[in-house]
Amino acid sequence: MNAYTVDPYAPSRLITGQVMVGDVPVGGGNPVRIQSMTNTSTMDVHATAAQAAKIAEAGAQMVRIAVANLEQVKALEEIRHLLTAQSFNIPLIADTHFNPEIAVAAAKVVEKVRINPGNFLSRHHWKPGKDGDTLKRMEEKLLPLLETCKKHNTALRIGSNHGSLSPRILYHWGNTPEGMVQSVMEFVHLCQRHQFNQLILSLKSSHIQTMVYSYRLLAHAMIKRGPIYPLHLGVTEAGLGEDGRIRSAAGTGALLLDGLGDTIRVSLTENPENEIEIAKMLAKMAPPTGKNQVKKYTQLPYSPFGSETPMPTDPIMDSPGRPIVVFNKPVPGQLYFAGDHIISPKGDTRYKACFVEGREDAEQLKSHDHLPDIIILRITDAGAGRSIIMGLHKAGIHVPILLYVSLHSSDYWACRTWRAALGSLFLLDGLVRGLYMDTERSRGSSSLDFSNSLLQSLGLQYHSAVFISCPGCGRTLFDLEAASREVKQALGHLKGLKIAVMGCIVNGPGEMADADYGFVGAPGGNVTIYRKKKPVAKNIPRNKALEMLTDLIKKNGEWAPKNSECP
């Protein structure tokens, strides 16, 4: 399978065209730009302007604001005036859904408009066999927006979300990375037809594998066909606390290390200014800008698009397909390294292991009569690690490899984001069987907690309930952060169960399509509870909703006491 870069061992940053968002150049080799989104009511112009100012002061270069109707477009103008009066000239982005007329109106006020192909038109307009009619109507609705953007020098983000694809896309391609790419590229082709190229593209998901494979497919498609537009990265509904930060690093960081991404947003269920610190760390992961090779591709022994079996390794520890986590000191119930062996939790099984830290170590292995059972690959960057693994693969050495990300930094989150990004990149591509972890503890959670959180965010192992929660915006209908913490505290012990806490219905039902249960904001501060994709209890008072959700889980036989092991 061809990759989108010439040298996958030391990836360079993909060169895109440059798009101006106000005075901020995005893409074209410029630094990765950081943005966040306000979660105040857009109609509360003073609160929204104050929050936008905090986001700017924290270090973001752009601020996004939810715009649901024409009254909120008028509020945008006042928000702009309030920010200008305080000498904040940060570009504003209008996040619009469902109504093309709102996008047209907003394009006259802000520096960038975001539309979602999945709900730009009515979801009920299309019928099987009527693709041509739908595409024609799509073009008719899009053209006024393009003309307005041209007139006012407004950039446009075409942002597809996994879970909110249109019925027509789902019918033809399913809820897949291929469907997400097709959804965006249809709009791109319409923009090109009308000579509009101030585009930024995104394919966001809370599912890390889907996100990574989708962006790779999109980059591959743009390199083949051209032109190459800037990419906006972000894991939707990453959640809160350490889990949310690790999930964001696993998705956004992995892609940045791969050379993709020109602007990013970390979507935490917290105050938006809290997102900026972690976003700055992620932005530093982008490799140096390289030269695009449109006609030449490197043949890889594995698929970068997730459609083929990962590189084979010998089965070990009776855990085929399950990642191995080994610690450098004894940890209750965990594998650990001692001397030159990996010891099982009970101490009755020993596996010969050796460290590989460079090409020289790998070369020496080729001459060994007896290979170790496991290789621990110690690296500090993606290129060196890939190069060593590919060398071992070509030499016919298929010993299971554990990734050891060796970093020496006093910055707790700088280390954790780097480890999460590199771990995600190598695990998703099937290049390693697991992780080797230091047990040193800095502030925050332990190395065991970190490895559990990373593997769970990648869907490789489950250690607790899986929570996704949106960061909130001007559409949010209840206290999202408080609700998320409450639901997580009550239901976090239900291992493997996926629960979504969403602020409103705009993206909620779609984005949580693969969740077992949904806890979604409804008008009046109420909650609608979902089971899979269907609402089962509507407009429940907030103070009774968690109890009702718990009862529903028990009724469906998926409950377990907190002090027991869940199946």
Question: What is the secondary structure topology, with strand pairs?
Answer:
Layout: E1 19-21, E2 24-26, E3 33-37, H1 45-58, E4 62-67, H2 70-85, E5 92-96, H3 100-107, E6 112-115, H4 131-152, E7 155-161, H5 167-173, H6 177-193, E8 199-204, H7 208-225, E9 232-233, H8 241-257, E10 263-264, H9 275-283, E11 324-327, E12 335-338, E13 341-343, E14 350-356, H10 359-366, E15 374-379, H11 382-394, E16 401-405, H12 412-428, E17 434-437, H13 447-457, E18 466-469, H14 480-491, E19 498-502, H15 508-511, E20 517-522, E21 526-531, E22 534-540, H16 542-555
Largest beta-sheet details: 8 strands, parallel
Q: Under CATH, the topology of the largest domain is which? A: TIM Barrel
CATH 2nd-level architecture of the largest domain: Alpha-Beta Barrel
Low-confidence stretches: 1-7, 292-298
Gyration radius from CA atoms, angstroms: 24 Å
* Range of helix content: 25-40%
SS strand fraction = 15-25%
Structural class: alpha/beta
Contiguous helical run count: 16
Distance between the ends: 38 Å
Label the overall shape. Answer: globular
Q: Strand sequence of the main sheet, in spatial order?
A: 8-7-6-5-4-3-10-9
Report the top-level CATH class of the largest domain: Alpha Beta
- The CATH superfamily name of the largest domain is Dihydropteroate synthase-like
Taken together, the total number of domains comes to 3
Number of strands: 22
Residue-averaged pLDDT, rounded?
86
